[in-house]
# Entry
Amino acid sequence: MTLTVERAQAPAPLRKRPFGLVRHSLALGRRSLTKTLRTPEQLLDVTLQPIVFVLIYVYLLGGAVAGSTQDYLQFLLPAILVQTVMFAGMATGVNLNTDIDKGVFDRFRSLPIGRSAPLIGSVLGDLARYLVAVVSLLACGLLLGFRIQTDPLSALAACLLTVFFAFSLSWAFVLIGMLMRSPGGVQGTAFLVLFPLTFGTSMITPKETLPGWLQTWVGINPVAHAMDASRALMLGGPATGPVMWTLLSSVLFLAVFAPLAVRAYRRRT
# Structure
């Protein structure tokens, strides 16, 4: 008599579908956007905070720096637009660190999705925050009397360039979020990075009024180039140089910090 022994067959491995990582990342990006919309208080830093900054700078410093609040508003708003969107990118690292602490990413690991999809999805979902920051700040500026002196296409190019620059730099905050052990540590470290980058510029006062050593820093600061590009595209003036430097630094940030952030994410999760 011949005994037949049936062996339990292991389930066939899931086949990788083309563009699976892209689809999964977009789906998780929608999750991040939905979470933000259900907790609108998370948008205070990109709606109310930039308006407060504009009001404080314009009405406290406008007369002393530019001679009138209206002239200072024209000088300030294109530059503070860059600062606002950059500060919005900092929240990406804080939120990712919070989700990891809560075990959300442990659940994602059990799903048949690309390992990096939750990380990429979170970063893509926060693009909506950048757009909200741009719209709210420009709306506030227009109500206060800010006027674009070039054309709508140039102004749109300034906004898109600012968003791309902030998106590229946000990968540095993602890396910080993966390396720090608490959301408070992420926020503190990010502020240490942001303050010399944003205030070591001509955002508040013209470059010519700064000390010599600070003018040297402004000349090599990529954020200063982004602010100059925003001003040139919205108010007029030479734009080619600042725009090219901003694009170059954005690509460099993306090429350096994105792979490092993904590697740190894989180690932590």
In short: Residues 168 and 253 are 6 Å apart (CA to CA).
